[in-house]
Amino acid sequence: MNMTFFRGMILRFVSTSVLSTMLVFVAIELSIPGGYQAVLLPNGVNRESPRDMAIVDQFYLDDHVLVRWLHWVADAFHGDLGRSNKGGAEVVEIIAHRLPITLELAAAGLILALVVGIPLGVFAAVHQRRWSGQLVSVPLGLAQSIPAFMSATLLIWVFALELGWVRASGWTRISSSLSGNLGGLVLPAVALALAEVGVIARVVRSDMLGVLREDFVVAARGKGLSSSYVLFRHALRPASLGLLAVLSVSISSMIAGTFVVEIVFGIGALGRELIDASQDRDLYVLLGLTMYIVGFYIVVTAIIDLVMYWADPRIRRG
After folding, report:
1. What are the CA-CA distances from residue 153 to residues 100, 168, 198, 305 (Å)?
2. Is the separation of the CB atoms in 201 and 144 below 8 Å?
3. Residues 165 and 312 in one domain
4. Do 54 and 197 reside in the same domain of the chain?
5. 127 and 257: one domain?
6. Is residue 278 part of a domain?
């Protein structure tokens, strides 16, 4: 592993952020009659008003949309993502306040999906010729086909309203109360994990079936090693490479699912902020959220690439 990998990661982040923020900037301009100027100055520009002219100068409203976007890019490289239309708060502060909630929820959903999905996939592969192995595939396919908002609604109805085991909405930060945080985390994490459990288990099952037929696994069994040792020491590692390749796709869908689940459970995190910013045409908040989402996705995929580099000698030789 050399600096080429890290240069490539930085290049992907910069190029993807530049393209995506430009598209958001232009889309906002084209989707609003009168452009972004109509959001900031809905009654039009009064050239004799010092206040109006200060806004024009601050946001470069007399310039072309791409020139205004370039001004924003220049400020973003210095850590200034602008201010919200609503209240004037700095975008960096808005995102920094809500980002930990979204990250905790996404991490909990992903960990839960892995903890449940990998053993189920191994079980389905080992017992493929038994009724128990076939039976596992049915709920996995069902869970995979249910959208996150529907599974979240069903979980609220059963466990919060009917059984009363957990609360239906709201969020408590872990710094305020650990038990309160876990109480608000359980259902959203399960709703997020449900769809990904099916994907993870199916990928592990498919790859495990191929690995169990390999000569080195047959030889390990011939040496008299226990079935569990052969499975988890010899078969699971090569079978996990397919899972690592699929994880980047699963994580991208989980990011979108996290925003949906946040809204269903009334969690005031980035999902709620994204909806509010879209409704208010809050351009700079949308641009900041776009950059953070792109950055999160690229960092996670880079980590997956590093794990695959460590796990697969063929990649290192390449």
Report:
1. 24, 9, 19, 35
2. no
3. yes
4. no
5. yes
6. yes
Q: How many domains does the chain have?
A: 2
Are 300 and 208 found together in one domain? Answer: yes
DSSP letter string, the chain: --HHHHHHHHHHHHHHHHHHHHHHHHHHHHHSTT-THHHH-TT---TT-HHHHHHHHHHTTTS-HHHHHHHHHHHHTTT---B-TTT--BHHHHHHHHHHHHHHHHHHHHHHHHHHHHHHHHHHHHTTTSHHHHHHHHHHHHHHHS-HHHHHHHHIIIIIIIS-SS-SS----TTT-HHHHHHHHHHHHHHHHHHHHHHHHHHHHHHHHHHHTSHHHHHHHHTT--HHHIIIIIIHHHHHHHHHHHHHHHHHHHHHHHHHHHHHTT--SHHHHHHHHHHHT-HHHHHHHHHHHHHHHHHHHHHHHHHHHHH-HHHHH-
pLDDT at 60: 84
> In which domain, by residue range, is 158 found?
91-317
Residue 217 CA to residue 220 CA, distance in Å, equals 5
271 found inside a domain: yes
Domain presence at residue 59:
yes
Shared-domain flag, residues 68 and 106: no
How far is 136 from 115, CA to CA, in rounded Å?
Answer: 16
Residue 69 lies in a domain: yes
Q: State whether 194 and 249 are in the same domain.
A: yes
Rounded to two decimals, the pTM is: 0.78
- Give residue-wise pLDDT tens across range 153-212: 888 888 888 888 888 777 888 888 888 888 888 899 998 888 788 888 888 887 777 776
> Does the pLDDT of residue 316 top 60, yes or no?
no
